[in-house]
Amino acid sequence: MAAPRVVAIDWSGRTGPTQRRALWLGDARDGELVGLESGRTRDEIVAFLIGEAERDSHLVVGLDFAFSLPAWYLRERGLSTRTLWSALAAEALTPAMRRAGLAAWMNLPEPPFWTTREGHALQAGRQPFRRTELETRSPGISPKSVFQLVGAGQVGRGSLYGMKALHRLAAAGFHVWPFAPAGFPLVVEIFPRALTGPVVKSSASARTDYLATQPMRPDLKALAAASDDAFDAAVSALAMARVAHGFAALPDAPDHRVEGKIWTPVANGPDRAGAQSGPWSVAAPDVSSRRMPACRPARSCDPSAAR
Questions:
Q1: Domain boundaries, the chain
Q2: Is the pLDDT of residue 306 over 60?
Q3: In Å, what is the CA distance from 276 to each residue of 45, 71, 89, 267?
Q4: Contact, 265 vs 136, CB < 8 A?
């Protein structure tokens, strides 16, 4: 069977017309990047993906946002992951969100979501990270908490909008892994920093040097080098495309069916990933004794690399 088509989306929590510039889509086939574009809103991207899957369901989509929240949050509120997505799609996760709407609510959220140092303190020591975020951590790779809705590199806003998108995609027949077994069309959560490695993505020259050896046309290399958003979409699509044959055998991850799991390619090389048994399993580090960093002023709390 031919390798599936791969689409990677560099997502964004921006609102209004600026989201058209921040949302990038990388399209890869047979291990090569064949398309890289922006210009769509989040709703338009979802509609595009649904339309593409209707034409050819042999499609894998990587989305750059958290697919769920820490299990304790869902458990305390009697939510499953699907009802979480549904509540966000209705912009009714909390009574205050129902009254204000999601966009306005994110500026003054209830704990454990926060935008200020005082709001962060109200987490009262609760674990702000999903298990997969702790498992993915390594030098230079530090996912942020979905509860954080402010500051450089925060992913909370984009993730809440993203879970609205997952509600639509699942309803349209997409298999959202690991909440559903692997099947096509397939959606996986990606973390671009885990796919690009330690390149300094804020540097145009560093992006250009990195892309020099990547399999894409010169015009796409120039486009990918122009911004870190475009770079993330392009490199993520290629990283997924290198192991595209293996997505059909993506293993179940029962321990992650509530919180989700960040997809990463096998560590011993893309050429062998498709032949591995359970090619995307990642050994979990011992996090039992880790202490969470102290929080200083809100915009400097939890300093870590952006996605």
A1: 5-300
A2: no
A3: 32, 30, 37, 11
A4: no
In the predicted structure, residue 280 carries a pLDDT above the cut 60 = no
Query: What average pLDDT is seen over the chain?
Result: 86
Do residues 230 and 36 lie in contact, with contact meaning Cβ atoms separated by under 8 Å?
yes
**Paired residues of 29 in beta bridges:** 32
Cut 0.70: pTM above it: yes
What is the tens place of the pLDDT at every residue in 54-68?
999 999 999 999 999
- Burial tier of 286 (Cβ tally within 10 Å: 0-12, 13-18, 19+): exposed
The pair phi, psi for residue 189, each rounded to 5°, is -85, 130
Per-residue model confidence (pLDDT) at position 297? 32
* Model confidence at 288: pLDDT above 70: no
Instruction: Characterize 171-193 residue by residue with b for buried, 16 or more Cβ atoms within 10 angstroms of its Cβ, and e for exposed.
Output: eeebbbbbbeebebbbbbbbbbb
234, containing H or E segment: helix 228-241
The CB density around residue 162, as the number of other CB atoms within 10 Å, is: 27
Distance CA 65, CA 88 (A): 14
Q: How many CB atoms lie within 10 A of CB 106?
A: 20
- List Cα–Cα distances, 187 to 46, 49, 108, 169, in angstroms: 12, 10, 31, 9
- The CA dihedral of 257, 263, 269, 272, to the nearest 10 degrees, is 50
